[in-house]
Structures are given as C-alpha cells and as structure tokens.
Amino acid sequence: MTVLDRITPETRRECSTPVLETERLVLRAPRLEDAMAVATLANDRRVAENTLHIPHPYSLADAQAFIAGATAGDFGTVFLIAARSGAVLGACGLAASDSEMPEIGYWLGVPYWGKGYATEAARAVIDHAFGDLDHEALLGGARVSNPASRRVLEKCGFQWTGVGLYRIRALKSSAPVDRFRLDRRLWASLKSWGRRK
Predict the structure, then answer these.
(1) What is the pLDDT along the chain (197 residues), one digit of tens a residue?
(2) For residue 34, what is the DSSP state?
(3) What confidence score (pLDDT) does residue 97 get?
(4) Do residues 104 and 139 touch, judged by C-beta distance below 8 A?
(5) 60-67 contacts: CB < 8 A, separation 24 or more?
(6) Within its chain, how far is the Cα of 31 from the centroid?
(7) Phi and psi of 36, rounded to 5°?
(8) Which DSSP symbol is given to 18?
(9) What angle do helix axes 35-42 and 60-72 make, rounded to 10 degrees?
(10) Which residues on neighbouring strands pair with residue 153, listed in sequence order?
(11) Residue 58 to residue 40: CA distance in whole angstroms
(12) In 29-75, where do the E strands start and end?
C-alpha cells in the first residue's frame, strides 16, 4: 500500500480545489463536517427557489450528497463560502454548461443576504476562472424575480444576453431566467480601471 492508496478520493479532490481568500471570506472545498450547516442554510424556500438544483425541503442527506458530488467533481468546481471566523455562508462555483463556457453559480443563506458576500465570492471565483483556469468567457444567470442576484452579476461586469426558461427543482416547474456573459477581456479592463466596486 502506498501513501496515495490511503488518501480517499474526497481528500484528493479537496487537495486539488484551491483556497481563495478575499477581504472577508475564505472559499474552500466543502467537507463532510459542513453538511449540517449547508443543510440548515439551504433548507429555506427563498434560497431553493432562486437556484436551479437545490430541492425544497433540503435535508441533511441532500447536503451530504451535495458534498460527496462536489468532492467527486460531479458539479464542476465547487467552493464553500465561509466567513474568516469559519462560519459557512453558502456556496459558489463553476459548472459545465451546454456551451463550451462554464457557468458561475452561487447561493447564500438568508441571514447573509444584502451584505455584499455574493459579489465578493463571485469576484474571487471569476479571478480564478480567468487567471488560473484560463477560461475565455463565463456565463451566468438569475431568475427574473431575483434582482439582487442580477445585480451581483452586473457588479461583476456580466452583460445581459437575453432570457431563457429554466427548470427550477424547488418549484417543480420552469421559470424565466435572465442570461449573462462575461468575457476575459472585459473583466481585465474592469480590473485595470478599478470599476469592480
């Protein structure tokens, strides 16, 4: 038995997911011990109805399955959003889409809404996508009924491209979603001009 044989797939994935740090946040790979915090935050209809894949109600088993899938790489690159104190606030990541461009997604627990955490986390993931992963463009989306999420994308420089109809798991039906795109050159331009605030 070698050292690699003793490392679980979960540990390997966690080791390959970088830790991204911002002024107030640490974005890191989710771990099984985060399951209760994730379940508590995601089990709010207001959260679930504004995401594509979060069911409602959301159980501890759902959180454990999410973490297992994230560590296996089933959902693309997933970061848990945590405060510097260690408290779990939500999640953010990059997922494969129907096009060649990955799609950014994020959610926060309701107690953390309106504090700028989603924008701060999204900017860190965008920097990672363009700087480390060498993507040329990213996609994003927000329900038409969720102006706060649309504003996060706009503050990050995403440009509106149209509206699509997407299946929302928590609603068990489809809903209109504003679609956005961000090109690497625009992001670099915004960063150089300091207009990311």
Answers:
(1) 333 343 344 444 444 789 999 999 999 999 999 999 999 999 999 999 999 999 999 999 999 999 999 999 888 999 999 999 999 999 999 998 777 899 999 999 999 999 999 999 999 999 999 999 999 999 999 999 999 999 999 999 999 999 999 999 999 999 999 999 999 999 999 888 775 44
(2) G
(3) 75
(4) yes
(5) 60/35, 60/36, 63/34, 63/35, 63/36, 63/38, 63/39, 64/32, 64/35, 66/30, 66/38, 67/30, 67/31, 67/32, 67/34, 67/35, 67/38
(6) 15
(7) -65, -45
(8) P
(9) 120
(10) none
(11) 8
(12) none
Cβ distance 79 to 85 under 8 Å? no
20 strand-pairing partners? 27
Contacting residues for 102 by C-beta, under 8 A, at least 6 apart:
76, 94, 95, 96, 129, 135, 138, 139
pLDDT for residue 16: 79
State the amino acid at position 106 in one-letter form.
Y
Q: Give me the amino acid identity at 79.
A: F
First to last CA, the chain: 51
Per this entry, what is the length of the chain?
A: 197
Q: What would the two tokens of residue 153 be? A: 């994308």
Is 175 in contact with 143 (CB distance < 8 Å)? yes
Q: Are 49 and 170 in contact (CB under 8 A)?
A: yes
User: CA geometry: angle at 106 spanning 192 and 115, to 5°?
Assistant: 70
CB count in 10 Å sphere of residue 92 = 27
Q: What whole-number distance in Å separates Cα of residue 197 and Cα of residue 182?
A: 16
